[in-house]
Amino acid sequence: MANSKYAHQDSLPLQPSVRYEYVKSFERCQPDILLPNTWIVIRIDGRGFHKLTAKYGFEKPNDRRALELMNAAAVGVFKELPDLVLGYGISDEYSFIFHKDCNLFERRAAKLITTVATTFTSHYIHLWPTYFAGKPPLTPPMPSFDGRAVMYPSVRNLRDYMSWRQVDCHINNLYNTTFWTLIQRGGLDAAAAEQRLSGTVAADKNEILFKDFGINYNNEDDLFKKGSVVFRAYELVDVVPTTTEKQKDGGEARVDEEDDDAAVVVLSKTAAEKERKRRAKATVAVEHVDVIRDDFWLRRPWILSGRAGKLKE
Amino acid sequence: MANSKYAHQDSLPLQPSVRYEYVKSFERCQPDILLPNTWIVIRIDGRGFHKLTAKYGFEKPNDRRALELMNAAAVGVFKELPDLVLGYGISDEYSFIFHKDCNLFERRAAKLITTVATTFTSHYIHLWPTYFAGKPPLTPPMPSFDGRAVMYPSVRNLRDYMSWRQVDCHINNLYNTTFWTLIQRGGLDAAAAEQRLSGTVAADKNEILFKDFGINYNNEDDLFKKGSVVFRAYELVDVVPTTTEKQKDGGEARVDEEDDDAAVVVLSKTAAEKERKRRAKATVAVEHVDVIRDDFWLRRPWILSGRAGKLKE
Amino acid sequence: MANSKYAHQDSLPLQPSVRYEYVKSFERCQPDILLPNTWIVIRIDGRGFHKLTAKYGFEKPNDRRALELMNAAAVGVFKELPDLVLGYGISDEYSFIFHKDCNLFERRAAKLITTVATTFTSHYIHLWPTYFAGKPPLTPPMPSFDGRAVMYPSVRNLRDYMSWRQVDCHINNLYNTTFWTLIQRGGLDAAAAEQRLSGTVAADKNEILFKDFGINYNNEDDLFKKGSVVFRAYELVDVVPTTTEKQKDGGEARVDEEDDDAAVVVLSKTAAEKERKRRAKATVAVEHVDVIRDDFWLRRPWILSGRAGKLKE
Amino acid sequence: MANSKYAHQDSLPLQPSVRYEYVKSFERCQPDILLPNTWIVIRIDGRGFHKLTAKYGFEKPNDRRALELMNAAAVGVFKELPDLVLGYGISDEYSFIFHKDCNLFERRAAKLITTVATTFTSHYIHLWPTYFAGKPPLTPPMPSFDGRAVMYPSVRNLRDYMSWRQVDCHINNLYNTTFWTLIQRGGLDAAAAEQRLSGTVAADKNEILFKDFGINYNNEDDLFKKGSVVFRAYELVDVVPTTTEKQKDGGEARVDEEDDDAAVVVLSKTAAEKERKRRAKATVAVEHVDVIRDDFWLRRPWILSGRAGKLKE
């Protein structure tokens, strides 16, 4: 009888899944839920990009196409993940920020990290031929990115994170610009250039660039000097000048203390859907601007409020 | 004087990085080190692949090209990460296993998960045109994968994990094969097919396939029935038949109890380097074989020992 | 020769500690650092106190001596841990709160939890004979407490935690008071009393107490109705009446939004030492007051600021 | 009407618990489940015991009463927590070990740590007057203990942990014995004694004790030399002498490799209850024996198997 075949056909026990399913319980042990009411920063970094830049002949100290590819991939991520409120990219690293009220994937860290990192990678590989047209195609080992999640409880912490990255950008770029100018135009080798810069402060490097090579660092491209800031572009808000004055006097920024602890507002389903649509309609902007001073935040209140602004006409 | 320009040129405070660097301390709070001496399983899953299969017209119940693309991406991952000892893929999910002695990235979970997931994604996107030649190219939203890390303390736990996944493969594939046969050849719609299968056990589904459609499930492709097992291919080891006999009698597998708790052996640098080279030389195999019974493990002792086997001539 | 004895004297390998010390590395895997800039709540709960209350004949619904012993133990904890800013006790549970700027034990969770829990236990056992004089002495099984740590990023979250516990106190005490009155004075058995209360709201329970037994719940002891709030007692601050008016109108509390995100101020060593001394000098108060409305917080600004107030004369 | 009183009686909102209960969700974020199938070690340490030993005049280098009080408290913990399989105490620290199959409190770390630590503290304070009779009573600051949980995947790891602690005991005790002998009998001050011991190895210290003071360290009390091992006392098992021979030859211990990966056996409720009763009947032993060599483990197989042995008559 035909049926008898099935009995040993596969010798797979027929309903043994229960026997092995206990292994699922081991998954609970990787702690994973990010603390509610904290800003979530996912930062990804290129893996082994030193080799990559050599293999594909990236320009030094900055390769414009490579940075624009990073930015294009980041924009791709923003379009697929409407919960993102802010991004910041320098060199081969990118930070993606979810609002403190965000509940995507129930705030599970592994899911948030891998979703951001693989979506970024997916766009990066997909767009590579566009940005490196005329170059030999990608071959293994392929570009990849590692990532991590960090929580920041307050707006002050979040802004300090952004400031930290932008200061890093400034310091690294000033160093690299001077270093490579000494090599490319000054004829030094790497060791000599490093030696020349040893112990110098920012003013010294500006001086070397200006006196020895006639370069005013101030005129360098903001893409290189300030990095890339990614956000949804609504209409900018006018800011009363007094605030700006105060800042000029070295006053502490205060933007962060106003809305930090607003009670958590849960939107109705309709409101949430409307909100989502407005976000989806907004274009994703990439700008090379200062994020350390208040101005950036005051004029784009939707970033910290997490509420869509007024769509541009 | 030229220098005076620099003073406010950028109005970036000149050495303020220290002021913001405290934010780094927040990174320590995501617990991340995976327990030493445990097997590490990184499992990735396609995100929103239901939509993807619709968008690109994947064949039902199994799309061979799609599965082969997954396998090719997995092989790419194995070639870039010599620490991997085993992989297993079904549908849009893939498991990657690091040996319990592995110390890659100091066992930091976020780094391991994102490296595996983005390397896989990178190869997947890169190889897509090869496997889907003649189809319209990829457009956003792009394929992406989420991932997680799970630790298993013993070989028994690890093998049970593999068995769990392979049993899942079997159950899902038998269901899907019958479901789609009822639709594609039986003319039922999805609701009717689901209704027909409601409450059936494996034997019933085999019967439907055989009696109504003349299909012997046993003859279906092992790629679909057993999933894909990835490992480094050294020369297989002969296994004494008695062991096999014992298994036929339903005896418990014992392979796992032999080498489980061998003292941790730290290789000398030279030995480790030699080991690494042998691994790099080994081809990466993708086979569709049973991993539930002992045979698979006994004939490939290098998987559980973590030591390179004898290279094939 | 005498020395030869030592060779096998102990047969302990003489310097083998290095061989085993690798086990220390396993300790890194219990994630433990609590996120900086978050309020830390350590809540402990009596283990098996149902049996304990039976064994030692605690009065129902509330045993004053038992609650006063809990409070005395909490005061003992406050005196030994000057970093604590607030405590709250009901029944057999106690919450201890460290300021968000607190860096005690580098914010390691296990150390914070166990230190609070064992210091509390130590005082509890030590003081038991004082509070239960004339009763038979403690015998095993001994009272013990389990504990946990929870982080709250904002003052609003922290105050909501306190409100949650005090509302719980109110709900439980109203229920218990009515339940035990029905039994002790109404002659019902437990099942009948439970049945009588099934489906009742607060107003119903008040009515039962008042109409059937002449008890105005409002006149019950605040120790039972409000629980016990522990803090360091400095001079209360006068609060402008307008705030109070606003609250009467049901306005949202605002105290939390003012100082929530003040930049982290690091005290000089001298200042920190001075601060510590003032805290040590302050008496530890236990009061049975409302912590839901603003008044409590406005008049004791040192709790949220974390800075010692003005010592009482 | 009487009822109207209740309306504002308390001005507590009547059913607001829902409003605040969201704070419970923050508790999920302290990762807490210990990995299944791993040995759990809870180690507690006396806090500030240096001051305590001075305050209560503990004898140097070892105070027998203080150690016996630690042991008595540990026995109290064993009697209240039948899941414990092994304990080890030296100085003011104690390790408590749960079997890898233990599921107490669903393996939640915070609950396990605090329960062990507070139960220990409770017995310690309770028994203090018994062990320090004739001394002034305890006064604040009170003895307290911090604690931590560590997971070990294999028997080898667990035994190495025990060996590590016992080797530490040996090293510390030899040092302390020599140090205090130099002071108490040699008339040196602390600085001179420290100087005298600087750079010495174990053999040197043995020599100092023997030549200068006629002390054979070998004859010191095992309580001091080996620490205290706590376990449930069933009938010892006879061990074939060959094993012992092998060890004498420096052979690796093998006891750990035999039962390490036995499949997880889930007992029936009746069997589990029977098991529990046998454990409760067993006396709790405190012995000062070697736990580094195999003999201890081979003769007490119930420790690693987790199954009650044969009760002594």
Automatic annotation (TrEMBL), chains A, B, C, D:
Protein name (Swiss-Prot/TrEMBL): tRNA(His) guanylyltransferase
EC numbers, comma separated: 2.7.7.79
UniProt KW ATP-binding keyword: no
Residue sites binding Mg(2+) 2 per the record: D45, D92
Binding positions (GTP): D45, G46, R47, G48, F49, H50, S91, D92
Catalysed conversion reaction: a 5'-end ribonucleotide-tRNA(His) + GTP + ATP + H2O = a 5'-end phospho-guanosine-ribonucleotide-tRNA(His) + AMP + 2 diphosphate + H(+)
UniProt source species: Diplodia corticola
InterPro entries, sorted: Thg1_C_dom, tRNAHis_GuaTrfase_cat, tRNAHis_GuaTrfase_Thg1, tRNAHis_GuaTrfase_Thg1_sf
Gene Ontology MF, one: magnesium ion binding
Domain Thg1 C-terminal, chain residue ranges per copy: 156-293
Family: Belongs to the tRNA(His) guanylyltransferase family.
Function: Adds a GMP to the 5'-end of tRNA(His) after transcription and RNase P cleavage.
tRNAHis guanylyltransferase catalytic domain sequence ranges: 20-153
Keywords: GTP-binding, Magnesium, Metal-binding, Nucleotide-binding, Nucleotidyltransferase, Transferase, tRNA processing
Cell wall biogenesis/degradation in keyword set: no
Cross-referenced Gene3D superfamilies: 3.30.70.3000
